[in-house]
Fold this protein.
Amino acid sequence: MRRVVTGHDENGKSVVVSDGPVPRSREFTSLPGWVSRLPWATDPGEPVSRTGEDPTPKVTTLLPAPGGTRFIILTFPPEAALADPAFDPVAFDREQRTDSPGIAELIEPDGMHATPTVDYGIVLGGEIVLELDDGNCTLLSAGDIVIQNGTRHAWRNRSGLPVTVAFVLIGAEPEH
């Protein structure tokens, strides 16, 4: 996956400041086919970067504070990979906590989770099921979008193929 970042030169002219792969990208060894990418992030009140400096190395949590953002792209392997005898859920949890701090700790054993964010999701390729409370499921396909309003949910790839979804998480105040 290619990431192009713009900024400004010393004269204020808009320029491409970097063009290459997403530097913060991880292919999980504990669950082949699971790929996590963090192309960009912003903190609350942060001004637009004039230089296009990469903020991702300093990100310590994928859960943005209210007003902050995280741009995350996930590739989900088919759900059948979880039933493979070689799958080690403890190793996967460990990798998740390393790769996705702030969110991984909120994921329940069955994959359900809720975050204090508004998430914009766009299915880039494949089909995935959005599961909500009480097992309510909605099938999403390439080109579909979902607005996730801090509800408890899980993602299920019941197809036989990988699926890639882009998410923009916007930190929000938790509902009381």
